[in-house]
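Hi C.,

You asked whether I'd gotten around to modeling the 251-residue construct. I have! Everything is below, sequence then structure, no commentary in between.
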Amino acid sequence: MSGTREAEVSRAFVTLASSLANGYDVVDLLDELTADCARLLDVASAGLLLADGRGVLHVMAASSERTRQLEVLQLQRAEGPCLDCFRDGAPVSVADLEEEKDRWPQFVPAARAAGFASVHALPMRLREIVLGTLGLFGNTVGPLNEDDLALGQALADVASVALVQEQAAADTASVNQQLQSALSSRVVLEQAKGVVAQTGDLDMPAAFAVLRGYARSQNLRLTDVAQAVVARTLPAEQLLDAAPAQGARRS
């Protein structure tokens, strides 16, 4: 590991540790985790699937829109490496997607059309409970080296800790309640992104940048800002007016 990359990894974990110690917005933290995976690992993009109390998976975070759409397709078609990883509770590594056409006849063509050539899915676990999966998508054919796989699993473990507070660690019912709360927060965030996107004529990633930028500039939780936007108690125009100072421009 180069000195520069080692420093970046250290910074990522310092930031995560600080968030866990000082309070955090789980939706914001998991989005940061997928962005860290795409930046620190030898992959192009990352997505995170989370199971609700019934064991049904949902898209919780993604570092790019094409990854989010591919994760949704896996759920809709009920096939793909992330689903297999969740069902078995074990990593799934595919160095060349073309070799798995028979295994995932709908997923592979969609992944290739999105520009991905390899995929690696890592389980998010809390002891014996599988919470979800972290999907790592590469633009080129080839395996992930052992260091990247270990770092990816470590980030998935951090996500698991973030989702479930320590006092709930051994209580399945409490775990499910924590997961459902996180999923509900994500639904509200997607609704708020839609409001901001429509109001400001933005694409969804730009709308998310506006929401996150406003929350951070005002020292507010991202989820609280999203709820206020959806409830219309915080006008989307107010966020858009503040966006240029945060580096987010209208399209």
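If it helps when you're writing up: The chain has two domains: 3-163, 185-246.

Thanks,
B.
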